Amino acid sequence: MALQHHSFRAAAVQAAPVFLDLDASIDKAIALIEEAASAGAAVVAFPETFLPGYPWHIWLGAPAWAFQFTGRYFDNSLEYGTPEADRLAAAARDNHIMVVMGLSERYQASLYIAQWIIDADGRTIATRRKLKPTHVERTVFGEGDGSDLAVHDTDLGRLGALCCWEHLQPLSKYAMYAQNEQIHIAAWPSFSSDSDESYALGAEVNTSASRVYAVEGGTFVIAPCATVSTEMVELLCTDDMKRQILPAGGGHARIFGPDGRMLHEPLDPSTEGIVYADIDTSVISVAKAAADPAGHYARPDVTRLWIDKTPGDRVITATPAGAGRARSIDRSEFLTDTDLADFTLLDPTAQEPA
After folding, report:
1. Which residue of the set 130, 163, 216, 237 is catalytic?
2. From 105, 137, 163, 164, the catalytic residue
3. C-alpha distances in angstroms, 70 versus 23, 82, 165, 241?
4. Is pTM beyond 0.85 here?
5. Is 164 one of the catalytic residues?
6. Residue 130 is among the residues annotated as catalytic for this protein
7. What pLDDT is attached to residue 329?
């Protein structure tokens, strides 16, 4: 059977949400979905925590100062299965476009940095959470687990997603590469903070991370990036020091090909809009002919990745069907004949049921 390739137009959003207002941010997201679909895009990707906006307040002052925004941020985060979530799924379906939404996910009493992949029929392909919130993000968000390092078969090819500085986690990146990822969504907040003191948080470093991911993984990278609005600055920046840390603008949405080249003209960092690029997955094989780090360019006799994709459930009320029959693996073993995606890590001292 001949290998199937996919050709389509991709869209990456560069815009600010209506900060701390879930309903208004969904209105804006739907307008952007409609705009991308009208431009012929088959997929549109949104920045990290576009709903209801990235919590910049946690970077601007002491935790006690930032607490003034905690309740409002929690209340305006998105919960799956609600009418608000249904509006986004309907927008994907009505415009026949795949949507990859960045959101603050509210689940019970906790929040998670999340990405929601919705197909062009409005059905959920996947929901994922950022494995490890970065630095002060841990004062707001919980952690994901190994099941969140996943690549999915879609009508556009094998698609996966990560958030922000997950693109600086070498093992997480390799886990994605090893699953034959073809289209990668790299969701970022704004890069408006770009001083010498915070150089690593700026545009040059982080757009480079997206570009390197494309070359390393031999994949197309769609990298939406938010902007900071003047309304956000007025709300959050109550003194000159805060205004210096968080100026308006900072949008750097990008789409890179598997050879690392940028596939469009960038928008001005202070401008809201959408960048587009035409994608043809047939060129991936050419890029990977030079270097496939999880294939012919690997040295598994020297270095290997060990991944546990068991969901990190807090409470287990029943044993999943067939779980007791999984093979116990001693931690001293190497992965020789075990497929990465199907690997299950168990306690080697536990006894299997009779």
Report:
1. 130
2. 164
3. 18, 21, 23, 21
4. yes
5. yes
6. yes
7. 34
